[in-house]
Amino acid sequence: MADEPIVLADIAGMLRSMLDEYGLDDIEVTMETRFAEDLELESIDLVTLAGSLEARYGRQVNFAAFVADLELDAIIDLSVGQLVRYVVRCLRTAEEG
User: Fold this and answer.
1) Would you put residue 41 in left (φ > 0), alpha (ψ -120 to 50) or beta?
2) Global pTM?
3) Separation CA 74–CA 97 (nearest Å)
């Protein structure tokens, strides 16, 4: 059963390994952490994250589809919590299907 604390820990780990390349691996990642403002991620970093999400969860978690429905301002202001809730919804839908 997918739940928010487990998915948050997974995504935080993915982000820490990405940020480690920039020497920023000690940043605390919470549900309120924002990708652009707090982590200073670029669009290429989000592409990398999308690949990590697919590797971890399979094709049922489609990051591109998730952001495709958002306005640019919403993408810029995207929080880890929004992504966590999306992943949990995708995993629960897959479990029920």
Assistant:
1) beta
2) 0.92
3) 29
Q: CA 49 to CA 43: how far, in whole Å? A: 10
Nearest to 89 by CA among 67, 51, 62: 62
How do residues 17-34 score in pLDDT, each as one tens digit?
888 887 876 788 999 999
Which residues are CB-contacts of 52 (< 8 A; sequence separation ≥ 6)?
A: 14, 18
* Token pair belonging to 53: 């999400």
Tokens in use for 92?
């629960």
* Alpha helices (H) along the chain: 4-20, 43-57, 63-68, 72-76, 80-96
Chain centroid offset of residue 9 CA = 11
**Residue at 84: amino acid letter:** V
Average pLDDT over residues 1-16: 92
